[in-house]
Amino acid sequence: MTEPFKFSLYHMVAVPKSGDTAFVPLTKLIESLQPDVRARWERLYMVSDRRLKLIHPLIYSHPVTKKPTLCFHLGMTDAFAWDAGTDKERITEWPETKHILTEIHQEIEKNNRELVYSHKWEQGDFIISDNLAVGHEATPETQLPVSQVGLRILHRTTVKGTEKPSKS
């Protein structure tokens, strides 16, 4: 997609015995990075579709707050581009892409107690999040069989984005 969703809305209809949703403030995550890691990430661009050449800076300015934020999707990142738009541009192959995604996930996990809010759902809960400033991920327990954890019914919708991520 050329413009990431602005907001995500979640409504829990049926709650399983386990399976949270983890939320992480992306600006704080960036600010917690070691300088060498941040410098590398500043050179990266997320490629969500090679055929359509959909490419966005991994670190970009939030369109409202102007604070640094991340543009990535753990499940929909096709590749990364190093130094996009320069003569040094290079698209990653899958092993390197997987390594970068793992590095991002590890940075989130490393600061889990300080950064990550893990929401334990109750029936009827309703959450609205700024999708451009807050990352989210279902915890692994959400993938367990219904026979083990019970039925999970979560309605989620998004609000269309209006701005393409940019460095400025």
Give structural attributes.
12 strands; Double-stranded beta-helix; 3-stranded antiparallel β-sheet; dioxygenase activity; 4-stranded antiparallel β-sheet; 168 residues; single chain; alpha+beta; globular; metal ion binding; TfdA_dioxygenase; oxidoreductase
Q: Which superfamily, in CATH terms, is the homologous superfamily? A: Clavaminate synthase-like
Q: How many domains in all?
A: 1
Give the CATH class: Alpha Beta
Beta strand count: 12
Strands of the widest sheet, in order across it, are 4-3-7-8
Report the span from N to C terminus: 19 Å
The CATH topology, please?
Double-stranded beta-helix
What CATH architecture do you see? 4-Layer Sandwich
Strand content: 25-35%
| Alpha-carbon Rg, integer | 17 Å
The secondary-structure element order is EEHHEEEEEEHHEEEHE
Tally of helical segments = 5
Shape estimate: globular
Percent in helix: 10-25%
Task: Walk me through what this model shows.
GO terms for molecular function: dioxygenase activity; metal ion binding. This is TauD/TfdA-like domain-containing protein. Belongs to the TfdA dioxygenase family. This protein is an alpha+beta fold and 168 residues long. It has one domain: Clavaminate synthase-like (Double-stranded beta-helix). 24% of the residues lie in helices and 33% in strands. It is built from five helices and twelve strands. It has a four-stranded antiparallel beta sheet. Strands 10-1-12 form a three-stranded antiparallel beta sheet, with no helix packed on it. A hairpin with a 7-residue loop joins strand 7 and strand 8. The two termini are 19 Å apart. The relative contact order is 0.34.
